[in-house]
Design goal:
Distance between the termini: 34 Å
Strand content: 15-25%
Shape: globular
Number of strands: 10
CATH superfamily of one domain: Metallo-dependent phosphatases
Radius of gyration: 17 Å
CATH topology of one domain: Purple Acid Phosphatase, chain A, domain 2
Strand order of the largest sheet: 3-2-1-9-10
CATH architecture of one domain: 4-Layer Sandwich
């Protein structure tokens, strides 16, 4: 059984289209989504319709939570975008808000004998936690034999071990990669073998940036689509 693992789409419908095309070519049987369907970019309803057709196994992200509670979203630019996404969804795709209300930021389940934990942040802080590739601190929740731990949130891909020893996976971000390669990142998980590989799709990010400039979108958020090195200026 092959599973496509995605995270942090952030309403970037063009990047999502490219990843879904790759997934179809890979022959994945399921899609697991690690949260943050929304935020950062304006194409919320279009992105939801595209992903929802795949019937993903999903968890809630922190930006998604801001969309759900838009009236209480923070005053900074990310909260402002969450409110705009919420308005888009309420007007054009209310089913997306209904779907978000069914999600939690973490879920545990089993597939083909493996114990799977999927969490947007970390098990210590499911909604807002962050575990980066260079994190060397001991964590009580790191996976053991027979366990697959899938994280999102940071937009940095991570792949360590395999399910025989304990597999730790962050597929990186579909919508806004931050590891120096601006192309969409995802992972293909082979449950029969208990291993995974990180993959990249390709899309015209410069065209997406031009569209955003045409509607007067925030320049920092636009420039994040071509982030060749980490600046940290909009990470929330």
């Amino acid at each position: 059984m092959l599973v496509a693992v995605l995270s942090d789409i952030h309403s970037n419908v063009f990047a999502l289209q490219a990843v879904l095309s790759d997934i179809e070519l890979a022959g994945a049987d399921e899609i697991w989504f690690c949260g943050d369907m929304f935020g950062y970019y304006p194409w919320a309803a279009d992105s939801f319709r595209l992903l929802q057709g795949t019937e993903p196994v999903a968890v809630l992200g922190n930006h998604d939570a801001w969309v759900l509670g838009a009236q209480h979203a923070p005053p900074h630019i990310m909260g402002q975008i969450a409110r705009r996404n919420a308005e888009d969804l309420a007007a054009n795709c209310p089913a997306a808000l209904e779907w978000l209300r069914t999600l939690q930021p973490a879920r545990d389940f089993e597939r083909m004998g493996w114990k799977v934990t999927m969490v947007h942040g970390t098990p210590d802080d499911p909604l807002d936690g962050r575990y980066y590739p260079d994190d060397s601190h001991p964590r009580r929740w790191l996976p053991r034999r027979g366990q697959i731990m899938i994280l999102g949130q940071t937009h940095y891909p991570i792949l360590r071990g395999d399910a025989q020893r304990g597999l730790l996976l962050n597929p990186g971000s579909v919508g806004q990669s931050r590891d120096g390669n601006p192309m969409p990142s995802w992972a293909l998980l082979d449950l029969a073998a208990g291993c995974a590989e990180l993959r990249r799709a390709s899309y015209d990010n410069t065209a997406a940036m031009a569209r955003l400039r045409g509607i007067g979108w925030d320049d920092r958020v636009i420039r994040a689509l071509d982030k060749r090195k980490v600046t940290g200026d909009i990470e929330r």
